[in-house]
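STRUCTURE:
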């Protein structure tokens, strides 16, 4: 998990929100991570993260069985086409580790996930994270006119 978070922190303009006990975020978010493109180093107010890491079952999202120790899931907005290409349409075991899966709740919306990425999936996960980050960066540029100060180098 730390490898994934460190990789995202290395992307230009990345902001990683990692709520901890005693902070301003609800206990349900503690231990998780939320990835944004935010060149001003502040979490965007009206933007969803392009990827997350979750460390526990959430209400309505228990099929990944994340409550046992050392289980966690990276979730990435990859787009519907990419999600379909990488995961297919056959039934999936949403508790399988090191396997590209459609997100158990948001797969139809283009979210892909991997529980405990390992040798089979880490390179793909990192590539998908980079692409999701670049897509978020491009959206930011379109919303903000693509001018100087947006982390896009101007244009």
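SEQUENCE:
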């Amino acid at each position: 998990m730390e490898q994934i978070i460190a990789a995202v922190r290395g992307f230009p303009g990345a902001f990683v929100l990692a709520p901890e006990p005693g902070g301003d975020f609800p206990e349900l978010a503690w231990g998780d991570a939320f990835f944004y493109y935010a060149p001003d180093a502040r979490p965007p107010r009206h933007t969803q993260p392009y990827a997350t890491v979750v460390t526990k079952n959430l209400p309505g999202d228990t099929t990944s069985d994340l409550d046992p120790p050392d289980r966690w899931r990276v979730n990435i907005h990859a787009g519907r086409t990419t999600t379909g290409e990488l995961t297919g349409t056959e039934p999936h075991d949403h508790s399988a580790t090191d396997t590209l899966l459609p997100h158990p709740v948001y797969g139809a919306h283009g979210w892909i996930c991997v529980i405990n990425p390992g040798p089979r999936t880490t390179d793909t996960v990192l590539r998908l994270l980079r692409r999701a980050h670049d897509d978020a960066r491009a959206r930011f540029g379109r919303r903000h006119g693509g001018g100087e100060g947006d982390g896009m180098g101007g244009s």
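REMARK: The beta strands are 14-17, 33-37, 51-54, 73-77, 101-102, 111-115.
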